[in-house]
Amino acid sequence: MQTAGKALVYVLVFLISALILSPLLFTVAGSFAVYWGADMYSAGVTLSWYAKVFEKFGHTIGFTLVLAFGTVLVNTVLGTMAGYWFYRWKSRWVFVLEELLSLPIAVPGIAIALALIQTYPAMRASGALMLVGHVIITFPLMFRTVLGTLRTKDFRTLDECAATLGAGPMYRFFHVIFPSIRGAILSGAVMVFMLSLGEFNMNFFLYTPLTVTLPIGLYEAYSTLRIELGSAYTTLFLAMAIPLMYLLHRLNQSSAFSRNGGV
Length: 263
Known about the structure:
Elements: H1 2-30, H2 48-88, H3 94-102, H4 109-119, H5 128-150, H6 155-164, H7 169-198, H8 201-206, H9 214-223, H10 227-253, H11 255-259
Helix pairs in contact: 1-10, 2-5, 2-7, 2-10, 4-5, 5-7, 6-7, 7-10, 9-10
């Protein structure tokens, strides 16, 4: 009976995995087709669609990476320091403010984009407004990750012991707290990068012809009605996203990260 139960679990896992992965595998396969018709490779195999992706949308890759790394840099500082401050702050209002700071991840990106356009219209042309938007929607990921890790152990005692020895706030953070939570910070940074990399809803309202991101370029690639071009673009996007997913998995599985509390 137990063996049958295990077999059923394996079958379910296989079916669910096939359901999720099959569309992606077909998309990757279609990116090498000259023409994706009733028979995918009836017209032959080619790499020309990848060349066309870089020709038409190559600039979007560079801009997206700069935007994502900028978002990670800002939120690593803001989210980490905010999490540390909230951990040390003793007030009955701390949980209320936590929820307020976590709201952006629950608000539709369209709503945030429209609010930003109405509030800071002059920042849109340069792309700075898009950076502000990405920082807003990804901030809760870093903030919650760091704060949750700090609450898994009694870091306050370590902090207070360092203070009694004469260490200042900045020294205590960088030499006592930071080494213990750097795994959580790195994990939060990877999640921030991934969310920024794939954000579409907000970008659709904030982008200009000079600030096109990967998801917007992907939308435009499919809107050309050449599914082979869109498939090649999707494959390149997956080539960037999958290593990040693996890195996040390794961080969560590493013993050092587990000792520090995890996410």
